[in-house]
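Reviewer 2 asked us to include a model.

Predict the structure of this chain.
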Amino acid sequence: MEGKEQLIFTFYCPKVPKVKGYRKYQRPTLPTNQHPSASMPPQRLQQHVDQTHTYIRMFCGSLCGFSLLMLICVSPLNWVQFLVISNGLELYAGLWISCNHELCWSHTPKPPYYLQYSRAFFLISVLTILVALGWLFRSCLPRRGRMTPNLDLKVSMLSFISASCLLLCLILFLAQVHWHSRDAMESALLWTYHINWGSDFLYMFAGIISFLNHITSRSPPLDQNVTAVPIDKSRLGIGPVTTVSPAEDAGSGSQTESTSEKEKKLSSTEL
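Predicted model (structure tokens):
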């Protein structure tokens, strides 16, 4: 008895702030989902999700349609103003307009063909965005048949193609202006040219939104047959939660009982 070492156990009890005189103290409970959609049937919830995707498609179509309308309105107008250095004569020209002067360009193709390439890219941009608008308009109509698969992805690709072609059109037109104004004229771009950059930005923005709509629409639809399995988690979030089967629980209970009996026997023999 005297030769045995004495075991000393120390318990750490952290100080917890106490609330004095507060009788309305309630026991903390786990957070619950109180959003109105939590009690909504899966079919109705899926219907709201589909309507949201449809509204996003309509928004993308509105952006593309507004940009196309601005392009059509400013394309027949003058885009640049030339000033002849020798006599101060002002000349105006555009993508489809010639200033009818020997120093300005004409409708006959001449190298380096910047103007012709710019017109070609402009037409490609308009045609691709018309195809995208046609698909979007068809999807908004009452469902008579099957909707175009991967509609958002296709609209996004067409929007990016149209924006790229319009960007090349504007760059080539700017090269055409610098080519003709390098010697005897000074050039100044008009507001109609800058509006085209706004249309190009809207095309890019519509393509990004349509691509994000495609990513979110790829999530699997909600199913009524799926049952939620509860997951045991630690209340304080410290340490993993161990799950014990009934057989293991019974075995551990018998082991604890045997160890307690052995400790009692050892204490009785020592006495």
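DSSP finds five helices and three strands in the chain. The beta strands are 80-84, 90-93, 185-189. We have added this to the supplementary material.
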